[in-house]
Write a structure and sequence with these properties.
About 35% of the residues lie in helices and about 20% in strands. It has about 500 residues and is an alpha+beta fold.
Length: about 500
Amino acid sequence: MTVKRVAKRQIAIRSNRRIAMASAGAKRGRTANASPTKQFFVDMLVRDIELKDTILDLLDNCVDGILRSVNPDLKKRTPYRGYRADIVVSGDQFIIEDNCGGIPIKIAEKSAFAIGKPDPIKGADAIATVGMYGIGMKRAIFKIGTDATVDSWNDDAFRVRITPSWLRAEDWKRLPMLRLPPGVLTKGRTRIVIERLNPAVKAEFESEYFARDLREEIARNYALIMDKGFAVTVRTSSDQPVPDAIDPNEFKLLRKRGLAEDQDGIAPYLYVGELDGVQIEIYAGLYRELPSEEEREREEETRGSTDDAGWTVACNDRVIVWKDRTRLTGWGEGSVPNYHGQFIAITGLVLLKSANPELLPLTTTKRGIDGTSSLYSKVKDLMKEATKGLTTFTNKWKKFEEGLEALYQGSEYISLADLRASLKRAPMRATHKFSTVRRFAPKLPVPAAEKTKSRVSFVALKSHLSTLAIAYFDDVAVKPAEVGEEAFRREVALYQEAAE
C-alpha cells in the first residue's frame, strides 16, 4: 500500500469517527446554548432610547387603553375628553397613573408583560396606535429602575411586580399576577410605580430642569392628542397637588378672511388621500408674516434657533418629527432650496394614519422617520412640492418689503380643525403623481411692483455707509438699506439731470 493510500485511509477513519461522535452526542440530547442573557437583552433594549422617550411610550399605552377599552368616536372634535395621565418624577420614584380603561386580564396574562407581541391584532379589531413591537412598557421600566409595581383594573383587578431578583435571574420566568389589595385603584385605572431608580435616571429626575423639559416634550409630541381632550400633568412629588394639565403646542396657519378659492390671497396648501394603505393629510403655509431684511439677517446670525418654521410629521396623532428644516423633510433636495432665515414664516404638518402601525414609516424608538420607507418617499414628494411653492412666493416678496403690510390685511389664523373642515370646501384636484391623493394649491399673491421694479443689493464698507448716513440723514443709525436706496436715488437723479 502506497503512502498516499495510507494517508487517505487515515483521513477517512478520522472523518467517520467524528461523524460517529456527533451522532452519539445528538442521541444523548446535547444542545448548544443560543439564547441571550437577560442582562444583555435588557441593556441592549434600553441603550438607544432617551429617558423622555420611554415616558412617552407609557403615554402611548394610556391612549391605546382608551382606544381598546372605550372605542371613542374619533370623528368628534375631542374624543379623549375626560381621560388623563398624571406623572410624578422624583429622586425616589417614578409614577404614572391614568384612567384610560385599565389592562384586560387576558391581555395582561398573554402579552402586556411579554417582550414583543405574540399575535399582533389586525383587521376590524386593530386600533390606530404607534406601538408595533410590544416593548414600550417593559423598556420604560428597565430604563428607569429595577423594582416596578403595575396595578390595573379593567375587567379584573390585578398586581404584577418586576423585582430586582427577577431581573438578575438568567431565566425568563412568568411573573406572578396577584389580586389587587382593596382600595388601591378604582375600576378603569392603571398605576405604574418604579423604584430603585437607575443612578443616571435618579440624577436626571433630581435635576431642576427635567420636569420642565419633559412638559415641553409632551406639549410638542402629544400636541394633537391633547388637542383632542387628553390631559397630562407632571409634578416632582406625589405630595404636591395635581397641577393644571399641560397646554399643547398649537398648529395654525394664516389665511385671508373670506377668500374665495379662485382668488389671489394668503392660504395654505392642502393634500388628502391614501398612499400604500395609509391615510394622509398635509397642510403647509405661513404661520407668521414674512421677515424683513433686517430680521432675515438676524436669523442668519442665530441660525434660526428660536423660530417655529419647518415640517412636523405625526403618525396616528403622535408627533414623530418636530419642526424639521433638513433634508429629512425635503429641504435642500431637488429644486427645493436649503432652509435659511428667509423662510422662517413657512411651516407644514403631515398626518399619517393606519390601524396597522407596521405600514407607518416609524423607527423602533417612534421618534424618527424610516428614511428607506417607500411610503415616506412618496409623501416627501408632496411636501417638497408645497415647500417649493412657498419658497418661490417668499423669494418674490423679499424684493418688495413696502407691499408686505397690505399683503396681510384681512388675514387670520385658522386651527387644525378649521383646516380639516376646509378640505370639504376647497376645490381639491388629483395630484400629478398620485391619483389617490387630492390637492388644493392656493393662488398666492404676486407683488404688483414686480413688473416695474428690481432689487439692488451690494456690499459696502461700514465706514462708507456711516459717512453717507450722516451726509443724507444726519443720523449714523439709519438702516443700510435706506442709505443704499438714497444713494441710488441721488445717482439716478444726477444722471437724468445730466442727460437733460
